[in-house]
Amino acid sequence: MSIKKTGVDEKVKVVCRVRPFLDHEAPDDSTAVEGSEIKITNQRNTNEIVSFRFSSCHGPEAKQVDIYEQDVQPMIDKVFSGMDSTIFAYGVTGSGKTHTMQGTEDEPGIIPRVAQYLFQRRLDYPKHTVKIHVSYMEIYKELVYDLLIPREGQGAGLSIREDSSRNIFVANLTDREINSLEEFDHIYTNACKNRSTASTKMNVSSSRSHAILSFQVTVAMENDEAQKDDESDTEQYALSGKINLIDLAGSEDNRRTDNGKERLAESGAINKSLFVLGQVVESINAASSRIPFRDSKMTRILQPSLGGKAQGMMIVNIAPGQSYFMDSYNSLNFATKSKTIENAPTVNTISQDEPSALSDTPKLGQALRVAVLRGKKRTRKRMSDSAVDGSAKRRLYDPFRWSSSQSGSMRENDGYDDTERTNYYSRMMKPWKRFAVGNYDPWPRIKLNDEQVAAHLESRVAVLVAEKVQDLQKSNTELNTQLEEQKQLTSNILERMQALEARL
To answer: Is 381 within the bounds of a domain?
Structure first.
């Protein structure tokens, strides 16, 4: 995958939404929205009025469609141009995050509206092939689980990896192509049943995990200006954009939620990941040399949207009322720090024969074999050209003969010195000696025909692919070891947190 920077840095967009009062809550005027500004008042000290300004603010009367059309849809449009986008809902438990992302049948949220819009936009490309894939995962107790398949058999969860283009991805995550809104609705409805939820004192159906729904949109294009070598066909490539829609679990005060032992463990993991998110934002704003993205699975996945190469938008959800004053203040203060982060969005393109990831060794080997065959075809064409004389043919096989024949001392015999040629090849191929097997000479000192060249290169491809597989297996073993160490560290932290909470 090739990446092209757009040339325009964009700050993380922050949108604020205040939910209405619930039936059991006593209304007050402690929260007010005026245009793109929100003000919260401490009823215990009416002189304490704090205001925050964001890209947009939506009061309790705002509809789901208002937020989607004003703030979300413009970001979705850019995905068809090959740009990645991440939209995540942030706030304390019970502030309306899941309602904003999922909604109801009468008031659909961001997720169903995005799905519907993707299929509408696909109609704008009648001459192109547009493919839409979906994946869905959750981070529960700092373990990543695939929501498109049953939890049984997933063991200790999935691993988060980074490819050669510095793209963050989850290894072995299920990825399904969808061709209609009805198909997505069926998949998503069943997947939501696998998500971890529970009832707490603050929320009847509280999300106990961070949920990440991703749409991968690939648009096949033709580059009329880019011509293949010695051919008239136009080059095929694709634009690849990804949308991450994230419903973060809410931070909790265990004294208010009245959590039991299991809920305490879940709450500890949630609060830890949100604490790391705060550290990441602080480190980015302070231009720190080390940003702790790897300290939490959730921040690792959010990394491209926090100072990376994807667009980012935070929807900070606020619960109105005096009892939520400190929660609202902390959420709004965090959102204010987040809006100063700058991203450098890029356009992702994939050529026709390019493998989707270097870790996919079969595709890598196939791509290399295709390159060998193309080189073979071009060589045959040039060798059959009547305008190419004998010396030019020799240059195709032996660059040293051509360079040496230009010196007067070696022009006689139309030849070259074997010793000097051997030294030349030795210097040139020294970095590749590690690929030699046994006493195999990587560059035979004889002239090779086309078939021999192709066979030689294909054998090298096989060796490279085998070594790549071996390296990946070694890396996988090391990552599993690190995972076990991290699990033990997390377990120790949770035990300490529970001990501290017990003392409080």
So the answer is: yes
Distance between CA atoms of residues 430 and 398, nearest Å: 17
Question: pLDDT at residue 454 above 80?
Answer: no
- Specify the pLDDT at position 430: 52
Output 373 or 493, whichever has higher pLDDT. Answer: 493
Phi/psi of residue 213, each to 5°? Answer: -105, 130
**Cβ distance 1 to 240 under 8 Å?**
yes
Do the Cβ atoms of 40 and 328 come closer than 8 Å? yes
* Residue 217: domain span: 2-351
Overall pTM surpassing 0.85 (yes/no): no
Q: Is 91 annotated as a binding residue?
A: yes
Q: Is 486 part of a structural domain of the chain? A: no
How many domains is the chain partitioned into structurally? 2
Exposure b/e, 466-502, CB count within 10 A at least 16 = b: eeeeeeeeeeeeeeeeeeeeeeeebeeebeebbeeee
The answer to whether residues 130 and 266 belong to one domain is: yes
Picking from 246, 253, 264, the residue whose alpha carbon sits closest to that of residue 327 is 253
If asked whether residues 304 and 417 sit together in one domain, one would say: no
The answer to whether 191 and 114 are in contact (CB under 8 A) is no
Q: pLDDT (tens digit, 9 = 90+) per residue, 200-258?
A: 444 444 567 899 999 999 998 765 544 444 444 555 778 999 999 999 988 755 455 45
List the Cα angle 49/52/54 in 5-degree steps: 160
Question: Residue 503: inside a domain, yes or no?
Answer: no
Average the pLDDT over 423-444 and give the result. Answer: 49
Same domain, 62 and 94: yes
Please check whether residue 491 lies inside any domain of the structure. no
Give yes or no for residue 69 having a pLDDT over 90.
yes
| Residues 285 and 367 placed together within one structural domain of the fold | no
463 is in an annotated binding site: no
Looking at residue 470, what is its pLDDT?
79
CATH number of residue 60's parent domain? 3.40.850.10
- Residue 153 assigned to a binding site: no
Would the annotation count 93 as a binding residue?
A: yes
Residue 192, phi then psi, degrees to nearest 5 = -65, -25
Same domain assignment for residues 325 and 388 = no
Q: Are residues 252 and 145 in the same domain?
A: yes
96 is in an annotated binding site: yes
- Whether the pLDDT of residue 419 is over 80: the answer is no
- Tell me if 59 is assigned to a ligand binding site: no
Contacts of 117 (CB under 8 A, 6+ apart): 73, 76
pLDDT of residue 156: 79
Nearest alpha carbon to residue 71 among 82, 60, 57, 59: 57
| pLDDT tens readout for residues 308-361 | 999 999 999 999 999 899 999 999 999 999 999 999 999 988 875 554 443 444
CA angle 405/408/409 to nearest 5° reads: 90
